[in-house]
């Protein structure tokens, strides 16, 4: 999950913890991990590592992906998109 640099990492990780608490098929042991994965160009990338029974993996994977957007937005967290600032410098010599 990617969040904006202006958002709280703790709020982002809390959103992931809530997702896990709402899914009873995620195993308690080994315990889920909530990590700061990457400080990327346009976002702070968080990662959830959770274990499930093999038979439930894909269902939980797709359902969790779908729920992430609503969960983070309900917390006021922004999911950023890649962006660049462009600065144009005018030359005093128009040669």
Layout of secondary structure:
Elements: E1 2-3, H1 9-21, E2 33-39, E3 44-49, H2 57-74
Helix pairs in contact: 1-2
Structure description:
- This protein is α+β, with helices and mostly antiparallel strands.
- It has a single domain, classed as Alpha-Beta Plaits (2-Layer Sandwich).
- 33% of the residues lie in helices and 16% in strands.
- The chain is built from two helices and three strands; from the N terminus they run E-H-E-E-H.
- It has a three-stranded antiparallel beta sheet with strand order 1-3-2, with helices on one face.
- A hairpin with a 4-residue loop joins strand 2 (33-39) and strand 3 (44-49).
- Helix 1 (9-21) crosses helix 2 (57-74).
- The protein starts with a strand and ends in a 21-residue tail after the last helix.
The CATH architecture classification is: 2-Layer Sandwich
Strand order within the widest beta sheet: 1-3-2
Q: What oligomeric state do the depicted chains represent? A: single chain
Distance N to C terminus: 48 Å
What is the gyration radius calculated from CA atoms? Answer: 19 Å
Helix content class: 25-40%
Q: Give the H and E element order.
A: EHEEH
Number of E-state strands: 3
Poorly predicted spans: none
Q: Which key phrases capture this entry?
A:
95 residues; alpha+beta; Alpha-Beta Plaits; 2 helices
Summarize this, please?
The protein is of the alpha+beta class and 95 residues long. 33% of the residues lie in helices and 16% in strands. It is elongated.
């Amino acid at each position: 999950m990617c969040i904006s640099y202006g958002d709280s990492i703790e709020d982002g990780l809390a959103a992931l913890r809530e997702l896990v608490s709402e899914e009873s098929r995620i195993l308690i042991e080994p315990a889920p991990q909530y990590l700061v994965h990457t400080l990327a160009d346009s976002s702070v990338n968080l990662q959830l590592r959770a274990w499930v029974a093999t038979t439930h993996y894909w269902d939980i994977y797709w359902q969790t992906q779908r729920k992430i957007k609503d969960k983070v937005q309900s917390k006021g967290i922004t999911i950023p998109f890649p962006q660049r600032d462009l600065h144009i410098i005018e030359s005093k010599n128009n040669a």
